[in-house]
Amino acid sequence: MGSRNTKQKSAIREAFQREGRPLSLEEVFGAAQHSQPMLGLATVYRNIQVMLADGWLRSVEIPGDPVRYELAAQTRHDHFHCSRCSKVYDLEESFAPVTMKVPQGFQTTRQEFVFYGHVQTAPPERAEGEREDRMPVCRRFFPAKDVPEQTDAPNPAKYSN
Question: What pTM, to 2 d.p., does this model score?
Answer without folding.
Answer: 0.64
